[in-house]
Design brief:
Strand content: 25-35%
Low-confidence stretches: 1-19
Distance between the termini: 94 Å
Structural class: alpha/beta
Number of helices: 5
Order of helices and strands: EEEHEEEHEEHHH
Radius of gyration: 28 Å
Largest sheet: 6 strands, mixed
Length: about 200
């Protein structure tokens, strides 16, 4: 029976157990020796601002990533992470260079191995995650999966170039109308007012 885990002590390798909460912060790391044997289920969020490489790819760093991670050992005694992640990322439209929001969703299945050589024998259904330490850094796992599911380019669904051109044309027409009505021209009576003030 898998344990449902929430980590409150973010600096310790030992975990405290209770029912998971959806707004629980994902811990910095877990004990790679224990969490798989415990078949732990981890649910929670991680702030986008904690993922520095991912932040370099987006236009804003606000918001959280919703994460679910199931840890287990398979029949071959391999350490398996099965998980999902969801977030809303703000990126720049490659047509108009204006910000836009895109949904990101990923489902992943990883095998944690100690070296690159051991990853060569994994079945194709598993992607390798190399962890040489007893600390499994969850932020690194989540960040890598986020980067992999980012689209190569992003565009607004509507024709944003035409929309921007129309808005620019409207602004130009407004400026022309103001100029025709004398807006912005010097008032000749302002000179008389200046002379009066000097007296």
């Amino acid at each position: 029976m898998p344990l449902k885990v929430v980590f409150f002590d973010r600096s310790a390798l030992d975990a405290y157990y209770c029912a998971p909460m959806e707004d629980t912060l994902i811990p910095d790391y877990v004990d790679a020796r224990k969490i798989f044997a415990q078949q732990a289920l981890l649910k929670g969020t991680i702030p986008v601002s904690r993922l520095s490489r991912f932040c370099d790819l987006v236009a804003a760093t606000q918001g959280d990533v919703q994460v679910t991670m199931q840890f287990s050992l398979d029949d071959g005694n391999r350490r398996i992470i099965e998980g999902t992640l969801d977030t809303q990322a703000q990126v720049l439209c490659q047509r108009c260079l204006e910000p836009m929001q895109i949904p990101l969703h990923d489902e992943f299945r990883l095998a944690v191995v100690e070296s690159e050589s051991k990853s060569e024998s994994l079945p194709k259904s598993l992607d390798p995650w190399i962890c040489e330490d007893i600390k499994l850094v969850l932020a690194d796992v989540i960040e890598e999966q986020l980067i992999l599911c980012m689209p190569i380019v992003s565009y607004h669904e509507n024709n944003c170039i035409e929309t921007l051109s129309f808005a620019a044309s409207e602004n130009k027409q407004d400026d022309t109308a103001k100029a025709a009505n004398g807006a912005g021209k010097p008032n000749p009576f302002d000179i008389l007012k200046t002379l009066k003030d000097q007296d």
